[in-house]
Amino acid sequence: EKGGWSSFMAKEVAEQPDAVANTIRGRIVDGVVSIPELDQLGDDALRSIRRITVVACGTAAYAGMVSKYAIEQWARIPVEVELSHEFRYREPVIDDGTLVVSISQSGETMDTLMAVKYAREQGAKAISVCNTQGATIPRESDAAVYTHAGPEVAVASTKAFVAQITALYLFGLHLARVRGTLSEDELAAQVAELQAIPEKITTVLEQGERVGELAHWMSDTRSVLFLGRHVGYPIALEGALKLKELAYIHAEGFAAGELKHGPIALIEPGQPVFVVVPSPRGSAALHPKVVSNIQEIRARGARVIAIAEAGDAAVLPFADEVIRIPLAGPLFEPLLAVVPLQIFAMELSQAKGLDVDQPRNLAKSVTVE
Ligand code: M6R
């Protein structure tokens, strides 16, 4: 039930610190990541994989895109992320060196289920990252790594998304340990980052009111753009998806490096643009690039709303609004930066008097093609 919340979505957004903590629980013991559900595959199987193909749809696919950066960096395995419906109709190259990882909150998305079945027929092993115990996709997989976000009722996925990233990060760290690609110290540092996330999400949630005010001021906006780089890129895509589905506003996410290849032509005076800014400490190479992107769009009249690390002063002269997120390792910023984008879309939907939990034309789980 909704408890005292105005919507299931508001409740589920607020539950995100617990969703992450519950997904971690039992999988980090004495600082060491171990996912018992993977035992049935065996460490030898995990050592012999040559590549990973992630299949998912919608928000789950964006969780997959975020995890690509982490798994490749930590476990040094190539990861490709594919929309399930694109994957299954193009005769993808799959063999017994491929591990297919499906991501699905419901575990019932038809295209993702069919992608898993196809991959297994080709000899691949399949792992399901799923939030619903006993759903079809985990049953049709070789192993299931459940997210423990609790039931997600609102059509827009929120707590399942952060739980999916958490489960995939645990998987990446488990792989790195088994494959010996990170030192013990490096592993311990990443584990500590992950364990600190629930509290940091709580800090971000405390700014919800301000983000809500912003959404109310912007309730007659017709189009919003989202920019990000590296792990901030899928977060830009997710911010845009949330706004489309909840507030019926035209929204697009771009990789910030693409601006000059086309999207900057969209910038005209007053155009709102959310920018996910990488950490100046953790992403020293990327931070100045994103700041210069902000300058470029600002010079053309964009109204910039920056999501930036606490203490990052470089964005101040150019951003119209700054939403702060706590310091975190560069790979962990998505778990924080997505939260204001969820709240923005939810509040804008409410400001327009729309049904936040049941947007038009959408179903919670897409069990048809
Ligand atoms: O149940 P699944 O995770 O497989 O669902 C995938 C998408 O349908 C889902 O994430 C959808 O994009 C959400 N409505 C996004 O908020």
Automatic annotation (TrEMBL):
It is found in: Cytoplasm. Its EC number is 2.6.1.16. It comes from the Bacteria. Keywords: Aminotransferase, Cytoplasm, Glutamine amidotransferase, Repeat, Transferase. The active site is at K364 (for fru-6p isomerization activity). It catalyses: D-fructose 6-phosphate + L-glutamine = D-glucosamine 6-phosphate + L-glutamate. Residues 42-181, 214-359 form the SIS domain. GO terms for molecular function: glutamine-fructose-6-phosphate transaminase (isomerizing) activity. Homodimer. Catalyzes the first step in hexosamine metabolism, converting fructose-6P into glucosamine-6P using glutamine as a nitrogen source. This is Glutamine--fructose-6-phosphate aminotransferase [isomerizing]. It comes from Agromyces indicus. The lineage of its organism: Bacteria, Bacillati, Actinomycetota, Actinomycetes, Micrococcales.
